[in-house]
Amino acid sequence: MPSSLTVRMGGHGSLARPTAAAATASAILAGPNPKPSAGVGTGTGTAYIGGSSSGFDAGYTYTDYSVPGGTTTLAGLSSWVAANVPDGASSTAHSRVLLGAGRTYSGTGFVDLTGRSHITFEGGGTEVAKGHTGGARLTTTGSPDPLNLVKASVWRAKSGTNSVSATDIRFHCMTVDGSYTNYRTTSAGANENEHGFSMEGVNGLQVSHVIIEKLQGDGLYLSDSTVGASSSAYYTRSVTIQDSTIRYVGRMGVALINTQDVTIDTCTFTDICYCPFDIEPNKTWQAIRGTTRFVNSLIDGDYWSWGSGFQDAAWSLGAPLASSISGSLTISGNTVTAAMYPGDVQDVVRGGYGEMVYTATFTFTNNVSTNRRAGPIVGLSGWSAGATVTGNTGWLSSGSFVGNYGGNGTITQSGNT
């Protein structure tokens, strides 16, 4: 074990959070790739620094905490982290939890990160394109709370107040899953709150080289901190989801409910029951703000919007409420090899409801499809700042590429086939 590295091990004990005073951080040299995040640990007490090829470790120092071998449940992991892992010192000096390559944590509980800050969770896997091999697996076997107060998510943060729920939390090289296999015929229904990540009111979230699958709800659910209506709720912000795969889930791939500055980059979405990407403010005071990007990603498998009558777009932009999308929204450089479920007639990009307020600039450029269909491909309504729709190929068999449903500013179109 490197002499500069502190690894704490132990069982469940008092839930009093340890202080960081005794921790000794070990430096990591910055690499050429600007992507941040965590290194690899075995989780066996022989932790080591091993800069990831994606540059996830670049610019960070860590104090490592290896999860003891007797911890095998989600609830046990949650308790152990609360009792043994202090918050990190800063946005570049993190406490790092080494989950252990090949280990499994399961059960009806979840890992509660409410109130935590500057922590990296390392699954110990080896990075591969849009995922990992050999990393830890975290599996929920629980049923969601029907009142929507405690989601049966694997990872959860929600303060229940107007205050931030968690700050600067990062995940690397792990699998997060459930046991749902009916996505092709049945939506999640009453179990829709079984998410991989339920991050509600989080300031700073990074998910890198993570596989999220077989959950009844959303892969990631990004909302705000309160239970019930509050226009002062703390909304989730500064989110990056990269180099990851989301597949076989019963609702959305990623759902944005109340957010600011979200980037989804170089990910794969496979056989999503509803929408791979969903912007869905559910209350009049919820909104999408800042810079929102869905780029360089793949939507594959057989279909999205599984099931006759679901009628869901690949990119669903908005919900039928008087809420807003502001700032900028960019969908660019993506490839779609899946098709909408046979018989569904929804636009591929559903961009508008009459009640919504869209002041964001919208860009849909350089996206490629391998399945042609009748237009419109992009349906827009209420985008007062207009839109740019250019350079999209392989989509159209007949009709117009853009459906202008009213209330839009100037829509610039060229090179769409």
Notes on the structure:
The structure is a single chain. The chain is mostly beta strands and 417 residues long. Helix content is 3%, strand content 38%. It contains 1 helix and 38 strands. It has a 22-stranded mixed beta sheet that branches. It has a 10-stranded parallel beta sheet with strand order 5-10-12-14-17-20-24-29-34-37. It has a two-stranded antiparallel sheet with strand order 7-8. The N and C termini lie far apart (57 Å). Residues 1-17 and 19-51 have low confidence and may be disordered.
Task: Give a short overview.
By secondary structure, the chain is mainly β. 3% of the residues lie in helices and 38% in strands.
Structural classification = mainly beta
Radius of gyration: 21 Å
Distance between the termini: 57 Å
Task: Tell me what portion of residues adopts beta-strand conformation.
Answer: 35-45%
Specify the number of helices.
Answer: 1
